[in-house]
Structure formats: C-alpha cells, structure tokens
Amino acid sequence: MAKSYFRYIPNFEYVNRLKRNKTLSEFIVVKNIFRRGSINSSIISDLSYFTKYQIIGDERPDNISYKFYNDPFYDWAILLCNNIINFQDEWPMSQRSFEKYLYTKYVTDANLNSIHHYVSTEVRNSRGEVVSPAGLEVPSNYSITYFDDGIGTEVTATNIVQGVTNLQYETKKEEDKRNIFLLKPQYVGVIAEEMDGSLIYREGSSQYKNDYLVKGENIRLYQ
After folding, report:
1. Domain range spanning residue 47?
2. Quick one: 85 and 26 in the same domain?
3. Assigned domain for 120 exists
4. Residue 204 burial by CB count (10 A; 0-12/13-18/19+): exposed, middle or buried?
5. Please, are residues 192 and 201 in contact by the beta-carbon 8 Å criterion?
6. Structural domain includes residue 102
7. Pairing mode, if any, of strands 137-138 and 115-120?
8. pLDDT single digits (tens) 116-135
C-alpha cells in the first residue's frame, strides 16, 4: 500500500511556542509543509506515460486513486501529475457546493442567466472554407468583411455572435476541470520512489540531523 502524502513530507524541529512550554529552548517536531515533491520532467512531458480521465460526479482524488490504482493513497500523485496546488480552486466542486457558489455569487436567476460574454459562430465562404472559426470571444457587434473569390465579391458577415450566460460560463469552467491525466498504473511505483528522494534533506547544513529531519534556529521573538 502507498504512503499518504504527509508521510513523505520530512520533519522539522521548530521552536515550541505553545503556551504550555516552560523553556525557551524546547523544540517540537512538525511536518515541513513548505517542501513540495516533484516528478521527473522526462515523465511529466511524455504523454505516453498517461491516460486521459474525466472526473465523474463528486469524485475526489482518493476515490479515483482507489478505482484506478486499487489504493486510495495515490491521491497525491493525481494532484501532482496535474499540477494542482490549490485544491479548492482547481478541482471541480461537488454539485451542492457548485449550486451554493452560483447563488452566492449571482444571487438571482436573472443575474445567473445574464450574458457573461459573446463568442463567434463559424463563417464559411461560398466554397465551404472556414473564414472565421466558432468560439472566439468577441464583442456583441462583431462582424467580418472578406473577399469571397468563389463569387468574386466582398462579403460582410453580420449577426455572427452568440451570447454565453453566466451559468454557461461557470458550468464550462467547472467541466474543464474534470479533464485530467492519470499516470498509468505500471509507472506509479516509480514516482513514489522519486517522491521519497525529492523530499529528503541533504547533508551539508548545521541544521541537518538526518534525511528526514532538520532543526530550525531558535530565534528570539522578543527582547
């Protein structure tokens, strides 16, 4: 079974500032949450190591990890491989949280269904060739003028926009978060070893105690 992410993170001896502390020289061991593991760039940049996955419903990283790797503790690998740092913002919300977010932000149905922005619709010339693609964010009065050599004249295309509501915009933004990459199961053990090696401390500092522990300076906060 894989280790949970916090078991990979090395420790740090930090000056005890708790009220019950009786001396200024006492230290406590805490996790060094400022250290972040990394994956070999040769793996990250090679899509052959990965498979596409679409997050279903309210799935969490540990749910997907169990389904894909038969182990819930590779959830950190899923986040790391997709460069997800801020889980609250970068992972799709549950349906209940999404609905709450919408009505907290937009308050009324009228606001929710107001136009957020406009996008272009596809324009083709008389030969069926695309002159202007669909999906470009454009102003509401967007138009284009082009020479259609199929009919030998200049053409102005108008009424080639469609509105995207706040609801459509927010929904698409959430749906886009559902498209992630999963490291293929045969490689997950490799990055677990790399994670361990990338987080350990190296000798050469007076603070070093061992590969998994360093000691902080006892800085006096008060004179």
Report:
1. 5-92+179-215
2. yes
3. yes
4. exposed
5. no
6. no
7. antiparallel
8. 999 999 999 999 999 999 99
